[in-house]
Amino acid sequence: MTEHTRRTVLRGAAGLAAATALTGTTAAGPAAARPAAERTDRQYPFLEGAFAPVTEELTAFDLPVTGRVPRELNGRCLRNGPNVLGLEDPRLHHWMLGEGMVHGVRLRDGRAEWYRNRWVRSSQVAAKLGESYPGPVPPDDFPCNTHVIPHRGRILALQESGPLPYELDGELNTVGTYDFRGTLEGAFTAHTKYDAHAGELHAIAYYPTWDHVRHLVVDPGGRVARTTRIPVRDAPMMHDFALTEKHVVVFDTPVTFDAAAAEAGALVPYVWNREHPARVGVMPRSGGAVRWFDVDPVYYSHTLNAYDEGTSVVIDLTTYPAPFDVAGTCTDGPHAVGTGKLERWTVDLRRGHVSRRTLDDRPQEFPRVNEELVSRRHRYGYSAAAAEMSVAYLAGDGSPPDRAFSDALFKHDLARGTAQVHRLPRGAAAGEAVFVPREHAVQEDDGYTLAYVHNPDRGAADLLILAAQDFTGEPLARVHLPGRVPLGFHGSWIPDA
Ligand SMILES: [Fe+2]
Fold it and tell me: Which cofactors does the annotated protein need, by name (predicted)?
């Protein structure tokens, strides 16, 4: 691989990172066939409106609140996302390649103590900000822009396909890269699964030049204790995966690395590969052989959760129709071929096949569960319908974006097959909703749903706090932030120790 390609791969993988969520056709595909004016009324949709990057790092104390912040919410609500820094040519911007910025609100004793937003200090970000970068620059260095999670008292910003995690302190300052006490070799992931029962952090890592993907288990001591190499062809993108009590589930879909696209300068050098069959792999959690099950061509972005049920494995996930093209120069950002919907896949291990069922066909993304139930049976799930995303992303078949479906948050009751909708004002631009259980909660949904939501009346973001058992009711609190939180990717509630 040439140095140019290596750099391009890194950039492309970084972009992909997040969010396979809602990416789409290429500059050489249907999107490019139409003038920009037909695609959107904005010239650079991912630099404007709800996506527009912020230009400052803010610190604000004692934030104004409408309603009351529950006194038991003591911790930090953090969210990561791309926020381009020092962009010289907007035509070369790809939303998913923006430098990671973490936004955070610190809640304590019923108060919104502070808000901060900070770029993740990779070597490139440090240089652009005129700061020094401590220590040697790691390979594939990138300001992780996809997720931010708690890990054994640390806070880690995550990126898939190359970059090491970056550790942040409690005020969102970058501490440095983190390699799990020297035990992580190579790439990590943006989407980990933490099994609270076992105290294990699981990951599936992929990298463009590998002939396999890696299942990593970080043990309760914080070390990568086991690595299992799972052979795959064509270097497929694996943005997320699923974990049950007994199994690891990987999704090998036809979005694969394309060296030619990388050499040609594609920012996101992954293409829909018609020669690459779609399949689901199920591996014992303890390691061992993977059983593969064919599925019709499809793409998935995120798993909500998964669990074992008798001799079957049940996975709830967001999927996209085929083909799902990601490659290209993407001068104006990604474009959706279709919108994400929520499905349930049941892998029957005894009969050897996968059945698929639509749970909710409304456009939505960023599915989340009560994290205490990761790998165990769940009843409820939470997701976001961000109308601004639908407006910005081009439908691959040329149809106009779905403007009828306004911004909203969903609470799915998967036992009843129903969903509640917390509707937000048009232009509210709801982000991912994170569930925080109440202390000593007995019922799965006894807790809070937190989401960063753009408040169009103020031109700034609010941190919305809902009672999850009164999902459609008036929010418990709206914490009013001093600035915008651009539409981004994933985050976590980091409870005080
Ligand atoms: Fe993601």
Answer: Fe(2+)
